[in-house]
Amino acid sequence: MANAIAYISRDTDGLHWKRILSDAFGPIDFRTLDSLGDTAAIEIALAWKPPRGLLASFRNLKLIVSLGMGVDHLLADDQLPEGVPIVRIMDDGLVGQMSEYAIYWALRHHRDIDKYAESQRKKEWKPLDFVDTLHRRVGVMGLGTIGQDTAKKFAMLGFPTAGWSRTARTLDGIETFHGADGLQKFLARSDILVAVLPLTRNTRGLLDAKAFAALPRGAYFINMARGPLVEDDALLAALASGQLSGAALDVFNQEPLPADHPYWTHPKVHVTPHIAGATNPRTASPGIIENIKRLRSGRELINRVDPRTGY
Ligand code: OXD
Q: Which of 69, 72, 90, 226 for a ligand 1 pocket mutation test, highest count of atoms within 8 Å of Cβ?
C-alpha cells in the first residue's frame, strides 16, 4: 500500500517535517530527495520547486502539497501528473512575515532611514522635510490572503491604502480597484507599491515600463511576490530616471540572483534572497496534517489549487 510521504525540496533536510508528521500520525515512511527508494510507495509529496517530471514518476501519488503559498513552482512542471490534487499551505505565520516585510521597507523609505544613515556616515546633523503619513499612499497589488493582511496593516498605521486585484473585491477601510481598467488609476495613486500577486499567465510582465510610468514620480517599489511579474529593464530604467526613488526586491526573474546582476550593487535597490515569507513547519503543519487526514478519510480537501487560474 502506498503510504509514504516524500519531502521534495533542497531547502532543508526535511527532518523537522518528519518529526511533526510523526507526532501527528505515529511512525511514518518518510522519504527525501536523497532517499526516495521505491517511488511506487509514495502517497503524498510535500514539494517546493520539484525537479521537472519527478512527481509524474510517483505512480501512486494521491496528493501534492505545495510548501509555498505560491504554486507557480509546481505549475512550471509541464509533466505534472494530471488529476492529482494540489493543495497549498495557508499559513498565518507566513502571512504575518510577508506583511512585516512590506511594512519594514515601506517605513524605512517613508522615514528616510537610508538618507539618515548616509548623514550619520558623514557626521551631518540634517533633519529632512517630514512627509505626513496621510500623504503617503500605499498600493497593494494582489488581494489574496497576504495582500489583504498587508493592506489592513498599512491602513491601521494611517497610510491611505488601496488594493488592486484581477476581479472586484471589497475590503473595509481599503479603496479597491480591479481589472485592466482599474490598474492605471490604482498605480497613479500609489506612492509605495507593494507587489503580492501570484505569478500566472495574466500577471507575468505586468510591471512593465507603462506600469512604472503610471506611478507618481519618486514612488517606491516593494516586490515580495514573484520576480517574473517585473520587466527588469523597465524597473532599472525607472530607477535611473528618478521615476522610482528606490526598490526592495525579495524575488527575481532568476534565482539565485546571478552575481553580475545590476540589482546587487544598485544604490537604490535593496536585495534579499526570497526570505519575505519563510515556510515555518510549526505554523504551516496544522493545515497539512488536516489535509492528509481528509485525503485518507475521503473528505474534501482544503486550500485546493485550481491549476487553470494558477492559485
Ligand atoms: C511562497 C514563497 O510561495 O515563499 O510561499 O514564495
A: 69
